[in-house]
Sequence to fold (252 residues):
Amino acid sequence: MIPKNEEQFRPSVPKITSDRRKELLLFQKHAHIRFRRLELLNLAFSHRSYANEHEMDVDNNEKLEFLGDSVLGLVVSEYLFTSYPGMVEGDFARIKSFVVSEESLSAAARKVKVDNYILIGKGEEYSGGRSKKAILADCLEAIIGAYYLDSGYGKVKQFILDILIPEIDKVLENRHKKDYKTLLQEYVQKSYKTYPRYSVVKKSGPDHNRQFWVSVTVNGETFGPGKGKNKKEAEQEAAGKAYIQLAGEEED
Fold:
């Protein structure tokens, strides 16, 4: 069933040229979906940077992303609830948090070649925006929102499950990339009634190729440092080193 309020959603969408139409059709082939309204799919690919740099008024995909995030959460929750009746709520939450994370969604986006079709501004393009995890994950959520509006819950549910059941299986089989920052924080809160503290030890390199080294202190003991292209990555690595030592978990 198509939402009744679809008629009220009349955004200013990017123009679809004959070449762009071919690209959108090719994306649908990769993703195994079919839109009735290609303009909705094209809007889902319209990043804020593209809309801001465009000469004519063009909307971005952020409203669709907001909608898609909610639809995504419902589909994953429903799937876990119906497929694993013996699982407790805490396990549902743990699995869902990974599956709908930026890490997981950006990986799923790459599999259906979302990065090939995003409309981004020149500045964002030059800074490597097409490969940024946040942009890819947000775009996938926007596509989910657009497909829900275009074809209804049943179709978008199938699309989501097709791309995310493998990610759910990774968590169930403990093959997923763990969020060590969250694991460490939960462990430290439970064990020491305090929080991990992260510190930048060193950073080097030019702005476009910066490297960070970050250490983490837990209950007076310092671990790391972890290294990464940004502070977030370095913190994750440092948290992993601390968690593995403190909780006694072996690395994958």
User: Anything to note?
Assistant: The first helix runs from residue 18 to 31. The beta strands are 197-204, 211-218, 221-228. The longest strand covers residues 197-204. Residues 68 and 145 are 4 Å apart (CA to CA).
